[in-house]
Amino acid sequence: MAEKTHRTMDDFAQACGVSRPTLSKYFDDPASVKPATRARIEAALRSSDYQPNLFARNLNRKRTRNIGIVVPTITDPFYAEMVSRIEFRCRDEGYWPIVISSHGSPKLEAESVRTLLSLKVAGAIIAPLGLASDRSVFDKLGQDIPIVYFDTYIEGDTPFVGNDNRQSVSTIVDYLCRSGEPPVYLDIPHVNHNSGERQESYIVAMETAGFKPAVIEAARDYTWDFERIGYEQTEKMLEAGTLPGRTILCANDRLAFGVMAAAYSRGLKVGRRPDCDLRVAAHDDHPLSRYTCPALTTMAQDFTAMAGRSVEILLALLDEADPPKQGMARTVKLGANLVMRQSA
Question: DSSP for 151-185?
Fold first, then answer.
C-alpha cells in the first residue's frame, strides 16, 4: 500500500535521497544509474504512489523515448500480430510505442506521420500503404528522425525489412505443381510492392517449372477489402463457368478466405483429398489461417524475425554513441516457410 504522496519530481527525488537530474536519468533509462541508486529509487516507488508526468517531461525535450508505429489497419490480425511483437521489443529496449493506423487512407497516413513529428518520437517503424503513399511526407519524416519500413516500402534508401517474395512464391508454386494440378493465380489490387512482386514471382516460377501461367486479374479499384474481392471474383467465375483451374493460389490469405467462402456457398468442397473440387493455397500465414475450414495451406512469414530486425535496425540508427556501420544492410528480405494444411 502506498505510504506517501509526492506531488513533484523534486519532492520524490528528495525522498529518495538522489538529485533531480539523477531521478530524471533513471526514468529515461533505469540501467543508466548505479545499481544501488536504482534499487533505492525503485524501493521508494513501491512505497509511494508517485507517477512521473512523462508527457510534461517530453514537452521539454527535443526527442522522447517513444517509438512511432504506423500500419495500414489495426483490425487485420497480420498487422496486429506485427505491432504486438514490435511493441514488446521496443519496451524491452526501454522505449514506449505509439501506434497509429492509417485505415487504408493516404490522407490519414500523411496525418499519422505529421502526428508522430508533433509527438517528438525518437524514431518510427512503419508499414506504409505503398504505392498510394505521399512520398514527400515520408521524405520529410526521414529528414527529422530515423525510420524503418516493414512489410512493404516506399522507393528510396530508407531501411526496409520484409518478405522475400521470390523465394516464398516459388516454394509454394513448386509444391502445388508437384502435388496436383498447377495453380492459377488470383491477384489483388496492387496497393503495394508485395502484390506486384508476388504476381511476377508466380509467372517466373510457373515458366521455370514448364507450365503456362494463368493470372486472374483483380479489380482495379483501390481497396484493402481483400476478403470481399476473393468472394466476388470466385462467385462470378463459378457462376459463369470461367474458373480457369481447380488449384487456386491466392496473393494473400485474406483473399483465400473469400475464395473458400464462395466455394462453400456453391456447395463445392475445398481440400487436397481426391473427392474435393478445388485446392486453395495462399501466402502470409495470417493468424486465422489455421482456423479456416479446411485449414489453409500457406507460406508463413517470419513475424518474429521481421519485428526483431526492424527494431534492431532502428535502435542502431538511434544509437549516437555507436552509429551503424557503413556496411549495415539497408534491405533485409526474410525467407518464408511452407505450412501444409488441408486446403491444398
Answer: SS--SSS--EEEE-HHHHHHHHHHHHHHHSSPPEE
Q: What is the pLDDT of residues 136-172, one digit of tens each?
A: 999 999 999 999 999 999 988 899 999 999 999 999 9
Of 55, 20, 61, the residue nearest 41 (C-alpha): 20
End-to-end, the C-alpha distance of the chain in Å comes to: 58
Q: Identify the structural domains of the chain with CATH numbers, from first to last.
A: 9-52 (no CATH), 66-163+303-335 (3.40.50.2300), 165-300 (3.40.50.2300)
DSSP codes, 172-241: HHHHHHHHSSPPEEE-----SHHHHHHHHHHHHHHHHTT----EEPPPSS----HHHHHHHHHHHHHHHT
pTM: 0.80
Which amino acid is located at 330 in the chain? Answer: R
Q: Which residue from 180, 176, 244 is spatially nearest to 206, judged by alpha carbons?
A: 176
